[in-house]
Amino acid sequence: MAELAGAYTQxxxxxxxxxxxxxxxKLGYITKAGFSSINSLLIHIALPCMIIAxxxxxxxxxxxxxxxxxxxxxxxxxxxxxxxxxxxxxLLRVPEVQRPIYLFGNICTNTGxxxxxxxxxxYGSQTVLGSSIYVLMCNLFLGTMGIAVLQAGDPxxxxxxxxxSGLKLHFHPRMLWNAPLVACVFALFLFFTxxxxxxxxxxxxxxxxxxxxxxxxxxxxxxxxxTDMKSVFTDVRLYAYTFxxxxxxxxxxxxxxxxxxxxxxxxxxxxIMFAAPVGVMAPAWVDNHHQDGTFAARLTVISTLASFVFxxxxxxxMGLA
Length: 321
Known about the structure:
Elements: H1 2-26, H2 32-53, H3 60-91, H4 99-107, H5 111-123, H6 128-153, H7 179-193, H8 199-209, H9 212-225, H10 236-260, H11 264-274, H12 282-288, H13 293-320
């Protein structure tokens, strides 16, 4: 119970920081330009430093066995997310025009800004490298299947009066070349070679990485503050989709994985990442491909708010089992 109390404390602190980001944006302390700058700081500096610094907390005797499994489970999870999206689109009778948006929302998840910091805060820094592999896999699927989904749903890419004829995959290597992915590869290199950075450099990187969690939570709050909240809570299908996608399926996955996997770290990361909400950048991606960016924003807000209820419930389930 003490571990659960510590987990709730960490999640509560992070929720308070989200509220601070929300209020700061409403008061004008974080402008749209400032939001963009903080985003860039997180992506290009803070998150990569957090990933690289995580190597020092890993136990080489167990990490070498865990890392390959993290890759396998991360790949399997994103494949399942795609299958899940198709199934829920059919089950909930999602209108044809919204199906690509729901599917893209399952691929463009907030693994980096929200779930990775939460997992690190609740379960410790030794989970960061494994969590970053999920961020890497998210980028891989976003640059391939994600772009294909949006292009398939883009009305400007079809002949007038003609419906989409299925997904045509287009691989975009430039999507994979980003700072968190490079940091993950570098961290894996340090881990498997046993090399270590000079102590002063390592301490500096860890200190910079330490700002990642509070900044990421403030970004989430700022993103919520920039959304028209009045239009968010009117679509019942959004609630059903989010409830199944972010609570029912992750909980079922825990029950199943606990039967076959003895390492709790692998399960913790898999389940929380499975419950990741839609990424804050999803509306911009959707709008850029001539689809309903406003609806994508509603999906993002509902799923993000729900995550602060569902993730504590999942942490409780895993803690009591």
